[in-house]
């Protein structure tokens, strides 16, 4: 059996409602050499049956079942660790990727050469019904800029965290620390990737990111719990930890000292200072002080 060109990693926990659409969209990609890894984080609904049926009918599907929920970041990392291809793409269990997503991203990386470490198409938002309700303003994200500090600046300006669901060179992924178990792990990973190289933009809307009421909260305690289901929230200091790891993402990179200084300046001006209240909230939570 030849090595697949691209691995799609699908981390899932109790995703029976939208998983069939998400999985089908990957199985229908027009790129032949695919590997599909589903990592089930101890689901208690019908997820297991859906995954087992897919693995039985499609030899490209590898289903990994875990007995307990070890947290969202752990599950995302598990799909990367199990991949065998030179290219990788995460697929959230409620999103949809149109049939030419894979081939378009692979072609974009081939055209851009080694300076591009990942590629992503333009994105639309869909609701629970699968109907597009918004086009993201992502044609001019600036993540293909020439210098690392420009790319980092533009990432914080645009806050385009959805591009982590593009196609990433596995060599670049391995040079990063991957997804860390902390709130904002997507932004940390993207900073590490953008310090290595550019994003190649596919100027077609081939990625549908879903918004629906059943999604876990992206704020406060629920977001912390997503990463560490059995962890404590009070002393988690999520914003403070995130700021620290974003700084580390820049300082551990192999860019020049002047580029590091410019990237850190962009981090402070575009991210840390505008979110200073978040660190204050961390302290209030630790002290058990309720918001007024």
Describe the structure.
The protein has helices spanning 19-27, 47-57, 72-81, 101-112, 148-158, 170-175, 185-196, 220-227, 238-251, 257-272, 276-287; strands spanning 6-12, 34-41, 61-66, 87-90, 96-97, 116-126, 132-135, 167-169, 198-210. The protein is α/β, with parallel strands linked by helices. The chain has a single domain, classed as Spore Coat Polysaccharide Biosynthesis Protein SpsA, Chain A (Alpha-Beta Complex), CATH 3.90.550. Strands 1, 2, 3, 4, 5, 6, 7, 8 and 9 form a 9-stranded mixed beta sheet that branches. The chain is globular, with a radius of gyration of 19 Å.
Name its key features:
single chain; 292 residues; alpha/beta; Spore Coat Polysaccharide Biosynthesis Protein SpsA, Chain A; nine-stranded mixed beta sheet; 11 helices; 9 strands; 41% helix; globular
């Amino acid at each position: 059996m030849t090595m697949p060109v691209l691995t799609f990693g699908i981390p899932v926990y109790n995703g029976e409602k939208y998983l069939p659409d998400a999985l089908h969209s990957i199985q229908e990609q027009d790129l032949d050499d695919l590997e599909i890894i589903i990592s089930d984080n101890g689901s208690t609904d019908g997820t297991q049956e859906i995954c087992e049926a897919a693995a039985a009918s499609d030899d490209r599907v590898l289903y990994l079942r875990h007995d307990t929920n070890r947290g969202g970041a752990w599950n995302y990392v598990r799909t990367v660790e199990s991949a065998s291809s030179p290219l990788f793409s995460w697929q959230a269990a409620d999103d949809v990727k149109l049939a030419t997503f894979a081939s378009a991203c692979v072609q974009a990386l081939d055209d851009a050469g080694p300076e591009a470490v990942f590629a992503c198409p333009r994105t639309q938002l869909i609701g629970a019904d699968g109907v597009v309700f918004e086009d993201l303003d992502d044609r001019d994200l600036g993540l293909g800029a020439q210098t690392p500090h420009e790319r980092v600046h533009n990432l914080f300006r645009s806050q385009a965290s959805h591009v982590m669901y593009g196609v990433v060179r596995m060599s670049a992924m391995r040079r990063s620390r991957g997804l860390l178990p902390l709130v904002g792990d997507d932004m940390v990973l993207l900073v590490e990737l953008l310090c290595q190289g550019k994003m190649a933009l596919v100027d077609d809307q081939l990625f549908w990111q879903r918004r629906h009421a059943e999604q876990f909260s992206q704020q406060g305690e629920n977001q912390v719990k997503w990463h560490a289901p059995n962890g404590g929230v009070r002393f988690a200091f999520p914003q403070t930890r995130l700021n620290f790891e974003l700084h580390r993402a820049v300082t551990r990179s192999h860019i020049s000292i002047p580029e590091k200084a410019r990237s850190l300046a962009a981090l402070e001006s575009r991210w840390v200072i505008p979110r200073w209240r978040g660190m204050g909230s961390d302290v209030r939570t630790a002290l058990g002080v309720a918001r007024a």
